[in-house]
Amino acid sequence: MKSELPKVILLLAGEGKRLRPYTLDRPKCMVEIDGVSLIDHQLRVLRSEGLNDIVMVSGYKSEMLERFNCRLKHNPRYFETNMVWTLFCAKDELEGDVIVSYGDIVYSKDILKALLNSKADIAITIDKNWESYWRKRNDNPLDDSETLKIRGDGTISEIGQKPKSIEEIQGQYMGLMKFSSVGIKQIKDVFDVALKKGSLLGHDIENAYMTDLIQAVINTGEPVTSIPIYESWVEVDTVKDLKSNTTKDRLLSITGNE
Q: pTM of this prediction?
């Protein structure tokens, strides 16, 4: 008997300020490369693996997401909150097995399959070949990067801090993860505690990053498992990303293998 496929929650609330003027009239996820939007690419990959229970958490230009025939949740405070707050705007959807993904990435079927095959309660895809990609995107690969330290058993010990050296980055966090029902309870518990305190790892709860939520779970002693992948994904965060040949080449390598 085939196991039930997870629900997918896509975090699509952001304004994409670093992509202006291309986001003046659309959400960040709807920026196009050669006439196809990032979200169309991602939905195609998800649906190719039978993942049709998809929730979009909207914010900026939310009405434009209605055409995708997905359930919509809304973050009305998208302009002053961050990823954790956006995720928990869909708290009533956080049940059972759930994949959570950022909206400014595109990834291959192979990456999605590797995530689906994980039996971990919290599994996060990590690009082990991140450095060459980051050097093409930034003059200094430490710019716009975060620490990610992995134990010998593949679990993550640290994520989301400002790195002092390349050695502190053992893989690149993509913004793609899967939670079992147990993992969902773990992040809910951490969120509820942070909500009462008003902060999560020193950040206001409204402005906490997803990596703060993950690190907080790690700090409770629960395992967070890395799923090593090697390229086959792309992130579009800036106008430079949008226009670069690197982005187009990587996207072609993903879509050309579908």
A: 0.94
